[in-house]
Amino acid sequence: MKKKKQVFMEGAIAPEFIATSIAKHQSKHSIGAHNIFLGQVRADEIEGKKVSAIEYSTYEGMANEKLQEIREKAFERFNLTYMHIYHSLGKVKAGEICFFVFVSSERRKEVYAATEAIVNMVKEEVPIFGKELFEDETHQWKVNS
Asked: How far apart are CA 14 and CA 17, in angstroms?
């Protein structure tokens, strides 16, 4: 079983963090493929109001337990070498990255299937909540689509 990792990060996930994560795997020569999913905050327009940011919150203990279960399922179901999940907490502005999934394997088919499955499991099973903040300073709870 793989060790537990810190998943939650305060604020947006910086491009430099993503680049560093990728660079750390260059020396691992058993890897033949990586796949990345980046979730970005959209400036949706809802009922005439534009989203300027999303403020993320979670029940961290519950979320970490569920993420560990997802991690275990992914390693059982797919032939992965590495898997990383990161999600923002707090305010993330439109255009910034809030969700980063990075998987590695010997073969490309595994990383494609694993990435989609992991993203869907996180979205469906992990108690992460987003409050859409509008330009007019009103807000509403986000519904995942």
From this structure: 5
CATH of the domain at 27: 3.90.1170.40
**Structural domain tally of the chain?**
1
Output the tens digit of pLDDT for each of the chain's 145 residues: 445 578 999 999 999 999 999 999 888 888 999 999 999 999 999 999 999 999 999 999 999 999 999 999 999 999 999 999 999 999 999 999 999 999 999 999 999 999 999 999 999 999 999 999 999 988 888 877 6
In this structure, are residues 11 and 87 in contact, taking their beta carbons and an 8 Å threshold? no
Can you give the residue range of the structural domain that contains 110?
8-141
Residue 3 lies in a domain: no
